[in-house]
Amino acid sequence: MTSFMLYHHPLSVCSMKVRLALEEKGLAWSGRVIDIVQKQEQLEPWYLKLNPKGVIPTVEFRNGTTKVLTDSAHIIRAIASLSEGNALLPKDESDRPLMDQLIDLADDIDLHILSYARHPSMEKSEEILNERIQKTLLMSEKHPKLSANYVVCANRSEKTKKFRVDKQYIETVENNALEAIIFVEKQLQDNDFLLGNTYTVADVIWTVALSRFDLLGYSSWLDKNIFPRLASYYLRMQQRKSYTLAQVQSHWWSK
Fold it and tell me: Which ranges carry the GST C-terminal domain (predicted)?
């Protein structure tokens, strides 16, 4: 039996995807919350040794030996491929390409930048990024053996600062998201899930994406008068037990 140790944050989109995949799979897991806002724990040396890019989530798969995965897309597919637990892959192999297409459509939406761009307090958002960069530089001097890792972390934060106020980039992201939503609306038809009547990894990814749109105030994208199938689908996904257990967040919180 495989056990899982998940390093995550409640409001992280990628963390939500992994938590939801674990809950839908019906697998027990342990977790440690990584404070990426106040303490910036993702920049601590012990965590960088687990996840060299200093991002969340990270999962330790323990089954006799310990395997560490650090990319949420790889983590979710690894969870789905396990023989134990509920199936998260299509029964028909011919449906795999469509599932992959739906996953890619959601994953290609830069929810990270949108989250910082539409934070209810731009000052708070700026403060978080500045503190992150400052700590990155400080930790790089303190731990020179990890300096290359800290450069990657600093560059990522600088990129976030740049693009979150780039109106043209934000508009491009929003247009791409809207195109993906239109595709999903057509795909749903009268189905319960994205691939007919079978819940798959694609539903995991899109449930979290829709919850983030909800949090960011893209109400028209979830309007039952504009996208009736998508709105109904989102409501059904919210009513699933896994949605609550995985702590999928659709509202801002102070921490």
Answer: 92-255
